[in-house]
Every structure is written in C-alpha cells, then in structure tokens.
Amino acid sequence: MNFKEIVASRYAVKSFNGESIPEDKIGELKEMMLLAPTSFNLQPWKVQIVKDTVLKEKLKPVSWNQPQITTSSHVFVICANTDLDALAKRLEKRMLEEGGNPEKSKMFMGMIWGFLHKLDEPSKLIWAQRQAYIALSHGMNGAKALGFDSCPIEGFDPDAYSEILALPENLVPTVVMPVGYASDSPRPKLRFYTEEMFF
Q1: Is 65 in contact with 14 (CB distance < 8 Å)?
Q2: Phi and psi at residue 78, in whole multiples of 5°?
Q3: C-alpha dihedral (151, 156, 158, 163), degrees to nearest 10
Q4: 172 φψ region: left (φ > 0), alpha (ψ -120 to 50), beta (else)
C-alpha cells in the first residue's frame, strides 16, 4: 500500500481476533515509531508494551472495559517522559558519540536548555504529551503498513495504569494503542469537507 491507501484504510478497531502478531513485526513497528519527529529531537516519550494476558486483564477495567485491551495482540502504553533534563543530557551525549561537532552541539544544547528552563512542571507534561501523540500517529499508520490494525484509546485511568505497570513518576501514561488483527469491519470514514478544514 502507498501512504494514501494506508491512511484511508486505517481505522479505530473496536475488537481484535486475539491472534498474536509475530515479534519481528512488532520490532518493525517499534523502529517506525522511533523515527517519529519531536521538538529539539528530545524524544520525550517512552512505551511499555504489554502482551501478558494477566496484565491485560488488569488493565481492562481501568480502560472503561474496552474489549480492545484483552482481544489485542499487544498493548502499547505510550507515556510522556517529563524528565526532560535527563533527556537533554542524554541527547548531548549521543550527538557527541555520533561524531557531532562539539561547538555546534554546544550551541544547540544552549537553545534546548533555554527552552527547558522556561517550563514549569505542568508545562513539561503538556509539551511531552504533544510529542507522544506524534509517535502514536506513526504507530497507527505503521501498524496498517505492516498488515495489522490498531486503535487509539484515551478512555483509561492514567493513575491506575501507573500503579498496575509500576511506572516511575516521570512516565505519565498518555494514550494507549492496542494492536492486532481486526475482527470487526471499518465503517465509511466520516469527515468534514476539505473546504471547511483548510483556509
């Protein structure tokens, strides 16, 4: 499929058939999500992938009992990473490891630190969550490109997810993406007219 066919055929699956996706395909999906762009290339998101049946059963009640959680092959829990200072230090280290120009890297990091120091804690979370949604978009379209399906889920209790998955404080569950093979059928896409959305 070309990209237009991918975005046209992708839809929010309401139920999966329970079949497992091969791990090599999950590996390809991770690589696709890793290529998602982020501001300053800070990559302030992290994903816990849940495939354990018992864990999925625990997550379902705190996900409005949506069947996608337990019928999927894997559940991608996309978290915003609010430890931006640590990410900035890691990025600088990686740039130098990859042979980046030290002077240019220093200038670039100066811009990053200037931006980060203006953010309070709530702003850090909001900013990181915006970046996480870009990774989600790559994940949904990537899944369809690889021959399986997905569903973005915002209807869940982030605090309960954090407790069940024993997540550190800096990782905030932001959006959930179950993936698998659909057992339902897509309905025709309903969108506003192009001229209403672009001006």
Answers
A1: no
A2: -90, 120
A3: -100
A4: beta
Residue 147 pLDDT: 98
Name residue 134's amino acid: I
Tokens 């800070």 sit on residue: 42
DSSP assignment letter at 72: S
> In whole angstroms, what is the distance from residue 98 CA to residue 93 CA?
9
d(CA 122, CA 49): 26
* Below-50 pLDDT ranges, the chain: none
Burial letters for 133-156: b for 16+ Cβ neighbours within 10 Å, e otherwise? bebbebbbbbbbbbebbbbbbeeb
What's the CA dihedral at 92, 97, 99, 101 to 10 degrees? 30
Residue in the block written with tokens 């490891």: 97
Q: Could you give phi then psi for residue 65, rounded to 5 degrees?
A: 55, 35
> Domain 3-183 falls in which CATH fold?
NADH Oxidase (3.40.109)
Residue 9: predicted pLDDT: 97
CA-CA-CA-CA dihedral for 123, 126, 128, 132, to nearest 10: 180
